[in-house]
Design goal:
The structure holds two protein chains of two kinds.
Chain A lengths: L5 H17 L1 H11 L12 H9 L1 H28 L6 H24 L1
Chain B lengths: L4 E8 L9 E8 L6 H12 L18 E4 L2 E4 L13 E4 L6 E3 L2 E2 L2 H9 L21 H5 L2 H4 L6 H5 L1 H5 L6 H11 L7 H8 L13 H5 L6 H21 L6
Helix pairs in contact in B: 2-7, 7-8, 7-10
The chains are: A mainly alpha, B alpha+beta.
The structure holds iron/sulfur cluster and FE2/S2 (inorganic) cluster.
């Protein structure tokens, strides 16, 4: 049988799943609840601070990871869910899901690199 | 006191006379220590000798009596009538398999897949009898023992929505058995099994629904075996990528 290339998408899916499970809820809490509700100082998400984060190489890597991995996770999950509801796992569905994740990843990388 | 009874609705299919499978209802005596298989045996012995189904051990060992009982894959020798009484019990052949006759499913697809993963120890070197037994520590045995408990009852295949959607999927029990031999310290056959287990039809079609492990009467946890195989196969893949000259 042909050697499968599925480990690529699966590892992105698994990595993204891990991040989505552990890091994304914290990010949602901080950006969506804690700061707006005043549990954390409004200043902690200020433009200047965020700019410094996005300019720092390590900050760029972290930001890229929390954007691109969950994107691939979502793409793969969506594709399997489409399959579950009866859509064949054809080229079109695959290109749409993984293509969107790839575009999102490239866009994130470009934006981060230009900051 | 009138005898307590229970209705059993059975999906019948006799290919020589029936166009399509259809339900037939039987009334059987109710006993609280009876399992569904006892009810089937009562029907076969006293009511309708034409009923076909598989069974052998009546003690959850042989794995031949798997059926859909009220829509759930179960061993009929392990499903007590008291859990359904006074309601009707509906009995159908295992889902996701073609019907051979009445409650007998055609399981050839699984048999081929099982064979394809080489579910036996493939030693590095043949060992002569006078070399004695191949010793294993309790810890080494523990690493794979749970996966040896499989009785090939196929409840996991009937439970797996992915097998239903993608019939080429190698499926839970066969992949769990591949994993069982891969983890065995006496075995050196992993590379051969990976041909199947890590192929497109192997572990990747699993979306970790986990129904197989829920359905398994022997706590084999095939879903865990599949996820572990995914991780190990992914590590293989990246290793091969980083070291293209190395052994595959
Ligand atoms: S893994 Fe469990 S459910 Fe599947 S065939 Fe083996 S014993 Fe049956
Ligand atoms: S009759 Fe053997 S497992 Fe049920």
């Amino acid at each position: 049988m042909a050697k499968s290339n599925k480990p690529i998408v699966w590892s992105l899916f698994a990595g993204g799943g891990m991040l989505s499970a552990f890091v994304t809820p914290v990010l949602i809490f901080v950006t969506g609840l804690a700061v707006p509700l005043g549990l954390m100082s409004l200043d902690s998400l200020s433009y200047d601070r965020m700019l410094v984060l996005a300019q720092n190489p390590v900050g760029k890597i972290v930001l890229f990871a929390v954007i691109f991995l969950p994107l691939w996770h979502a793409a793969h999950r969506l594709l399997t869910t489409l399959h579950d509801v009866g859509l064949p796992k054809g080229r079109i569905a695959m290109t749409a899901c993984y293509g969107a994740a790839a575009l999102g990843s490239i866009a994130a990388a470009v934006v981060l690199l230009r900051i | 006191m009138t005898e307590q009874t229970l209705q059993v609705e059975i999906l019948r299919y006799r290919p020589e006379t029936d166009q399509d499978p259809a339900f037939q209802t039987y009334t059987v005596p109710y006993r609280d220590d009876w399992v569904v298989l006892d009810a089937l045996n009562h029907i076969k012995d006293n009511i309708d000798r034409t009923l076909s189904y598989r069974w052998s051990c009546h003690m959850a060992v042989c794995g031949s009596c798997g059926m859909m009982i009220n829509g759930e894959p179960k061993l009929s020798c392990h499903a007590f009538l008291r859990d359904y009484y006074p309601n009707k019990v509906r009995v159908e052949p295992l889902a996701n398999f073609p019907i051979e006759r009445d409650l007998v499913a055609v399981t050839d697809d699984f048999m081929e897949k099982l064979e394809s993963v080489k579910p036996y120890v493939i030693p590095q070197q043949e060992r002569a009898v006078d070399e004695g037994p191949h010793l294993q520590t309790p810890a080494q045995l523990n690493a794979f023992k749970q996966y040896t408990m499989c009785i090939n009852c196929l409840l996991c295949y009937a439970a797996c929505p992915q097998y239903g959607l993608t019939p080429d999927f190698v499926g839970p029990a066969a992949l769990a058995l591949a994993h069982r031999y891969n983890l065995d310290t006496r075995d050196a056959g992993r590379e051969q099994r990976q041909e199947i287990a890590a192929s497109n039809e192997g572990v990747w079609d699993c979306t970790f629904v986990g129904e197989c492990s829920q359905a398994c009467p022997k706590s084999v946890d095939p879903a865990a075996a599949i996820q572990q195989t995914k991780i190990a196969s992914t590590i293989d893949w990246y290793k091969a990528l980083l070291n293209p000259w190395g052994k595959r």
